[in-house]
């Protein structure tokens, strides 16, 4: 008895020249993981310049954004006196996880560094208000 794949003239090589091999795909995934790992090590060591470098490479390589990578890079930008970039990343954290307190805190810190104290306070107040209504 022929299988449906054999009877229909299935050719397992059809289109193969346009596909990643499993080895290429796993190497790409390994490169992403290694780059993130180097960023994690730099962050742990408070090496914010390299944290930014490795996490920036990770962001470009990842198909799905990571809230943790954006949060750590935002903090590193803050520690490197790059508040505008920190604010951008903190907003990305909120896109990834809308109700994560870290994103609001990082945004408030960045706004404060940008001398937008009223906006920073409003950010914290809005978050506190949303938390109290979600608990009730």
Provide a descriptive summary of the structure in words:
Helix 2 (22-44) packs antiparallel against helix 3 and helix 4 packs parallel to helix 6 (101-113). The protein has helices spanning 4-7, 22-44, 48-61, 67-79, 83-96, 101-113, 117-135. It is built from 7 helices and no strands. The model has no long low-confidence stretch (mean pLDDT 86). The longest helix has 23 residues, at 22-44. The protein is an all-alpha fold. 74% of the residues lie in helices and 0% in strands.
Task: Compute the number of strand runs.
Answer: 0
**Biggest β-sheet strands, sense, barrel:** none
Radius of gyration: 22 Å
Measure the end-to-end span: 65 Å
Query: What proportion of the residues form beta strands (DSSP E)?
Result: under 5%
* Number of helices, counting only DSSP H or I runs of 4 residues or more: 7
Secondary-structure class: mainly alpha
State the helicity in percent bands. over 70%
As residue ranges, the low-confidence spans are none
Overall shape: it is elongated
Mean pLDDT: 86
Give the H and E element order. Answer: HHHHHHH
How do you describe this structure in short?
This protein is mainly alpha-helical and about 140 residues long. The protein is built from seven helices and no strands. The termini are far apart.
Keywords:
single chain, 136 residues, mainly alpha, BSK, cell membrane, ATP binding, TPR_BSK1_C
Layout of secondary structure:
Layout: H1 4-7, H2 22-44, H3 48-61, H4 67-79, H5 83-96, H6 101-113, H7 117-135
Pfam family, one: TPR_BSK1_C
Domain Serine/threonine-protein kinase BSK1-like TPR repeats: 6-108
Subcellular location: Cell membrane
């Amino acid at each position: 008895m022929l299988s449906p794949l054999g009877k229909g003239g299935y050719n397992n090589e059809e289109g193969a020249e346009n596909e990643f091999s499993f080895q290429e795909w796993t190497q790409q995934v390994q490169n992403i993981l290694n780059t993130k790992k180097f960023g994690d090590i730099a962050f742990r060591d408070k090496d914010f310049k390299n944290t930014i470098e490795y996490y920036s490479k990770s962001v470009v390589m990842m198909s799905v954004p990571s809230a943790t990578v954006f949060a750590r890079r935002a903090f590193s930008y803050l520690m490197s006196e790059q508040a505008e970039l920190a604010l951008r990343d903190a907003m990305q954290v909120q896109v990834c996880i809308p109700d994560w307190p870290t994103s609001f805190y990082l945004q408030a810190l960045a706004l404060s560094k940008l001398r937008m104290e009223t906006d920073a306070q409003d950010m914290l107040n809005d978050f506190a208000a949303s938390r109290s209504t979600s608990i009730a």
